[in-house]
Amino acid sequence: MRSLLAAILLSLLAACGEPLPPPAELGKLIVVTREGPATYQVDGSGTASGFEHDLVVLFAQELGVEARFIFARDPAETLKFLKRGRAHMAAAALSPGISNALQFSVPIRDVQHVLVQNEDALPVRKSADLAGRTVTVLARSPQIAALDSLRPRPKGLRLVKLKGVSELELLERANADPTMLAAVDSTHFDIGANFFPGLNAALVLPGKQPLAWAFPKSGDADLLGRTNAFIARIRLDGTLARLQDRYFGHARRLNQIDVEQFLERAQTVLPRYRRDFIEAQRLHGIDWRLLAALAYQESHWDPLATSYTSVRGMMMLTEDTADRLRVTDRLDARQSILAGARYLAELREQFPPGTAEPDRSWLAIAAYNLGMGHMNGARFIAELVKRDANSWYEMKQVLPLLSRPEYYSRLKSGAGRGGEAVIMTENIRNYYDILRRLEKPAVETQAFSMSSMAPM
Questions:
Q1: Residue ranges making up the domain that contains 433
Q2: Which of 63, 222, 299, 349 has a CA positioned 20 to 30 A from the CA of residue 423?
Q3: What's this model's pTM, rounded to 2 decimal places?
Q4: Known catalytic membership, residue 444
């Protein structure tokens, strides 16, 4: 009933042009955002996630209210929503330099801005090469200020400012048009390069720009103060760094050839085995796209793959593991996929209850490569060096220590290739992100998904 009354009140206030009551009075924190991989996204089950989303949810919890999101199509519309008093704040990858008519929080993170172009385009190597060229940007985006800061300003440089377009849509256009130059922030380029491998970073624009949350000029001063205190706290306790790593830490680990090959095989090879991966999800509750990403990292979806260590098949099972899981033929793709999914599910269950998603799954994937004995050894090392053994962000800094004698000499499991396990897991995170964009989820079962993870 309270939610219904709040919704009616919001509609009436918007119709009358009245300012919003403070969040504590309304019982809701109204936040304007934009859909995208760096802000807010919804998976096939309707569950939301994203860097800005998770931060806002944490902040609303601290305020003791519910977070409610409204959506703008581009940065320009985001600013209009705020100026018209339709939201308490904006969390949409905004830079304080884009408007003097708003207030901004202390920075959440810093980004660089890059000019991108199709790999077949006439190369741009320095700012002077932009003379007489046209660069496409999003209207009211931070990239406009970055381009304006070029000194000396390239003669005849023209900007085309698009409305109603997202960063990924802009990158898609640049990927398809060899004559086009586009400017985006480095985060979106790093993510977009995994979908559009034909793009190159032509030029890194000078300096870094902060991103922050925006507030109406006449907004609640107490809300801005509490926001700044919240950001300072999560920066100090490491929450902000862990969230940045969750959403951006694995980006750009794949090279152009890796991405091109993966996209090609996702179209030509993956369809043969999609049904088997979906069946594995039904049996073991792990998103079939994550299982497919793991299988690609292991074998490139080759059911006959064999390594020098004698692990074999689609999911690269050892002979002992295959025997324990009653696999009669490791080179049978279906048997391998179902057994590999079961093995990963068993590994996930071996971590303590305090290990939350997605950390539990990333740690289990590392253990899939490394073995649970070495993973337990790494968890022991984590205690020695005062790291959180339940955090992937922390453990991917600990795992490489397994190759150092001063650490592995204290372990029953001995030396381990922890650094390789980190690289493998980060690659799988990238492949999984790509498949989540390309492939629909299987809705037959309640499965693991990135967006079902509770914020830290």
A1: 256-452
A2: 349
A3: 0.83
A4: no
